[in-house]
């Protein structure tokens, strides 16, 4: 009789997946973690901007006052940004996953899809926080809010309202960054508005160019912002220059530095009216470095056969209430 060993190819075994599912996707949302998130109200994001208009004068003894003036006020309004991440799961997939021993992360398949969609939704919001066009139901991102001195932001025309203009520097061609340039930027913003930026957000290449300016790169573990103390963990690094913390964000527009004053920059959300505030945070995005409270909601959709359909939604907008406290340096050579 032939000598036939029972090899692995001749036996049937269950496929074992060790541990949980390991995500391989970078959905880090740096700006969403740096800026405070507040709840808005009403049909849009609205505030009142007050510009210079009052006058003061020298007068002669006994002379009557004749020049009466006041500071001007302009309504600033932004439409809400509407964002969602739809998904659907078959009944067979949910049943099979629930009765499978591993991987553990697939047992509650609907919950996993909700969590993944929430993370993807936050990733899209993070992207538009930088380059959202601000038209229709899109976020008015930083490129619109503080990247131009002649456009219209929040329905206020900048060309005729100097107080509404951010600090923007564009040398016209790629230029190496220097400590002197950074100090000039921070100082000029301070002169324009009376306050200095405390956060500078940039791409990895620009961040490395700034870091290379130091013989010994100083790394900081915390960033103090109006949202509180932000921990710089394995996904974040920070370098402080004259009180302004440089933080890298991989979604940031290349070759630019965004100078932000966290006291006047925030993300506003519009809560779902059907859900009490105390349970609004039941669904939050997690980019792998902690949760993001974007007032996300799960909306079940109509069934069409043995499928469970749903979507994760958020209503959100970026609000730069004092653009002159912020600024952008463009055409920065990346390292």
Give the fraction of residues assigned to helices: 10-25%
Low-confidence stretches: none
Radius of gyration: 26 Å
Compute the number of strand runs. Answer: 19
Mean pLDDT: 88
Number of helices: 6
Give the biggest sheet. 6 strands, mixed
What is the strand arrangement across the widest sheet? Answer: 7-19-13-8-12-11
First-last Cα distance:
71 Å
Shape descriptor? elongated
Strand-residue fraction?
Answer: 25-35%
Order of helices and strands: HEEEEHHHEEEHEHEEEEEEEEEEE
Structural class call reads alpha+beta
Quick gist of this model?
The protein is an alpha+beta fold and 335 residues long.
What does this structure look like?
This protein has 335 residues and is of the alpha+beta class. The protein has a domain at 30-44 and 74-269 and 316-329. Helices cover 19% and strands 27% of the residues. The protein contains six helices and 19 strands. The protein has helices at residues 30-34, 91-98, 109-131, 142-145, 179-193, 204-211; strands spanning 36-39, 45-51, 72-78, 81-90, 152-153, 156-157, 167-169, 199-202, 222-225, 228-231, 238-241, 244-248, 257-260, 265-269, 285-286, 291-292, 297-301, 307-320, 327-329. Strands 7-19-13-8-12-11 form a six-stranded mixed β-sheet. Strands 1, 4, 14, 17 and 18 form a five-stranded mixed β-sheet that branches. The longest helix is centred in the middle third of the chain and has 23 residues, at 109-131. The protein is elongated and about 125 Å long. The relative contact order is 0.23. The model has no long low-confidence stretch (mean pLDDT 88).
